[in-house]
């Protein structure tokens, strides 16, 4: 799970055009490098082009599935435009579909805490 300090150390100013923090991709990579070597991580980000391929094996996995560049771009756009979220809401019970906005630092910290609680609960329920 990404810690709030990562979000703070990975910023390189504030972008007025989109009214949001600007990420320093090199700082983010440097912060995550050791953690990624240690094991399973949940990484939540709308882009992926600056993450090292060795971390996720995204391209290898998608190439194995036959994904081309257009399909990669379309999948990213679906995420940004919440296509899958809307499909999930239409397909599943309301209480099991969650959307976690991460537009502000406080929201990101709350999301980390919530995801940690869900993981702890899942482990408790499945290790009994």
UniProtKB/TrEMBL annotation:
Keywords: ATP-binding, Kinase, Nucleotide-binding, Ribosome biogenesis, rRNA processing, Transferase. One of its GO terms (molecular function) is ATP binding. It holds the Pfam family AAA_18. GO terms for cellular component: cytoplasm; nucleus. GO terms for biological process: rRNA processing. InterPro entries: Adenyl_kinase_AK6, P-loop_NTPase. This is Adenylate kinase isoenzyme 6.
